[in-house]
Amino acid sequence: MQLNLSTRQLRAFLALAELGSFTRAAHRCHLSQPAFSAVVRGLEEALGARLFERTTRHVELTSEGRWLEEPARRLLADVEAIASGLGDRVALRRGRVTVAALPSLAAGWIPGLFAAFRREHPGIDLALHDTLSDACLALVRAGTADFAVAATNPGSPEWVTQVLCRDRFHLVCRRDHPLARKARVGVKDLVGHPFVHFSRASSVRQHLEAALAPQAMATVLEVEHLTTVTGMVEEGVGITVVPALTLFEFERGSLVNRPVAIPGLSRTLYLVRRADRSLSLPAKALYDLMLRRKPRAP
């Protein structure tokens, strides 16, 4: 049997079951008595069962009505919970947003942005995966993250990409290093100096090698993390070249940075999401905030 029950019918049924009076139940439901009676009659017809025994003095539930009472309460409570929960999401009072982002942005730009979002929407839970670009895209593709902040434009119909900003590269070296005396450096300046590299899987390394090809740097060390690069350069193990948006990590008294003048050496950062899935309202609110408060390179 296919049923088409309304919350109006369920509320009328429960009011009449509790009050035992058409007059009082109609008043509670803000209906005239004829309209209320029609609602109850329509429910009985839809179910194909008599739910109330009517007398001149009182109204009582039939056995079918007594059976229906508890399921009706649960069903109405579930519907009201759905309406309330959806209303909270629309009003951005509840929800969850998961972002995948490059570690440098996760450490430098995103903390302030998350803090601002939480002040505005304290009921929204935020989750962050800080990982490399390919892994960021994999998380979005799997549905684990709502969207990503990545240095890769996938360039296929399964993705929607939005340019976030462009980031230029800087040399970082010790203050007592010979290159620290230059206002800016080029390829010839970098050649021959011991170099601390990020791993080949990082977007920083990939952009740098593409711009320098076929020239190779004198690599002395390959590491995974920005903080490790900082420590190695600070101790004089080598120099490095990093995007401007990572320079916050190198703000040490013993270190300096200089712009790198190499044609084509820059990276574009993107907001990336799946084309076949719209963002939830909380995720769209955070996405829009990121576009309004784009990262600014020093």
Going by CATH, the homologous superfamily of the largest domain would be Periplasmic binding protein-like II
> Which runs of at least 5 residues are low in confidence (pLDDT < 50)?
none
Helix content: 40-55%
Distance between the termini: 68 Å
Largest beta sheet, briefly? 7 strands, mixed
Compute the CA-based radius of gyration.
Answer: 32 Å
Query: At the first level of CATH, what is the class of the largest domain?
Result: Alpha Beta
Report the CATH architecture of the largest domain. 3-Layer(aba) Sandwich
| Count, helices | 11
Per the principal axes of the C-alpha atoms, what is the gross shape? rod-shaped
| Secondary-structure-derived class | alpha/beta
Per DSSP E runs of 2 or more residues, the count of β-strands stands at: 11
Beta-strand percent range: 15-25%
Which topology of the largest domain does CATH recognise?
Answer: D-Maltodextrin-Binding Protein, domain 2
Q: How many separate domains?
A: 3
Order of helices and strands: HHHEEHEHHEHEEHEHEHEEEH
Overall average residue pLDDT: 88
Give a short summary of the structure:
By secondary structure, the protein is an alpha/beta fold. Helices cover 42% and strands 23% of the residues.
Description:
With 298 residues, the chain is α/β, with parallel strands linked by helices. The chain folds into three domains: 7-90, Orthogonal Bundle (Arc Repressor Mutant, subunit A); 95-164 and 269-292, 3-Layer(aba) Sandwich (D-Maltodextrin-Binding Protein, domain 2), CATH 3.40.190; 165-267, D-Maltodextrin-Binding Protein, domain 2, CATH 3.40.190. It is 42% helix and 23% strand. The chain is built from eleven helices and eleven strands. Strands 3, 4, 5, 6, 9, 10 and 11 form a seven-stranded mixed beta sheet that branches. A two-stranded antiparallel ribbon has the order 1-2. α1 packs across α2. The protein is rod-shaped.
